[in-house]
Amino acid sequence: MSKFFKHTQKTNETSALGAPQPIDVVNVDALLETINRGVDDQLAALDPAPTDAKTATALATAQQGTSVGVVELPTDAYRVVRIPRHPRRLYFPEDETTLAPPALEAYRSLRTRILHAQARRQFRTVAITSVAPNEGKTLTSTNLALCCAQLPQFPVLLIDGDLRTHGASRCLECDEGPGLTEILSGEVSREAAVVATDIPNLHFISAGEAMTPPPELLSGSPWVDFITWCRDNFKLVLVDCPPAPQLADFELISAACERILVVARTRITSKRALEKMLAQMDSQKLLGITLNDVKHYNRSYYSYYGSQKAKSDVRSQRRMVS
Question: What are the CA-CA distances from residue 124 to residues 29, 41, 86, 277, 314 (Å)?
Answer without folding.
Answer: 30, 25, 30, 23, 20
